[in-house]
Amino acid sequence: MPKSTVPSAAKQSSHESILHRTKNRHAKRRVINSCRFPDRWIDYDPVGKDMPGTRFVAFKTPLRHNYFLNCGKEFDVQNVFETKNLVDMANAAGKRIGLVIDLTATEKYYDSREWTDIGIEYEKIWCVGHHVSTQMDNIRKFHDIVSDFLSKHISTGELIGVHCTHGLNRTGYMICRYLIEVDGWDVDKAIEQFEYCRGYKIERKKYIDSLRNDCVKGLHATLSVDYPEKSINEILDKRLPHLKNVLPCIELNEFVATN
After folding, report:
1. Which regions are flagged for Polar residues bias (predicted)?
2. 170 is known as an active-site residue
């Protein structure tokens, strides 16, 4: 999905995800308590780029409309992110979300019928934060859900949207593990491409360690589905930017590109 217009400061790097806005993070936080957003939710861009060579797009959890009521004058309405916002963004890009996989361990953020009522498939995998790499049943369930959807929608081009609270750690782990174990990607390629498209580094070191040490390339290759988007992987191997000059934001443990 293409980027929307962003401030010039954010345009300095192609690493930024769509809807990236360079904001004063302290100003953002003044409204967090009154709006009761999930911790650090407002500090992350809503959605990343859809990942070339895959059908995946990662995004932070949308919130039901009530979250954005009575936020005060300092609240920037551009920070509103509901399910309809993601759908509108996809439509504007000429794409369609066909499946949403929710990895949060709660149902309080939104009503899943907001997806299913408009024809988007919805799957819930209850993943407890910080422990996704040890939840083998959930990992296999994710593999099965994705492969089943792809096998039924080989030529439609419909995207698979995956989210946890911030659309980063649990989401990144599950997507990368699928690409490694099912589609046979190299570990470094999977991690690098996810981080490039989401716009942030995966923060949990134990998730990175698990991807490197616990995953067997092509272990579940029998679940792999051939679809048109896969054909550009060889091109991606040559063109994907390397994120060597990426520094941590100490305050948030986020990352920003330096070039």
Report:
1. 1-12
2. yes
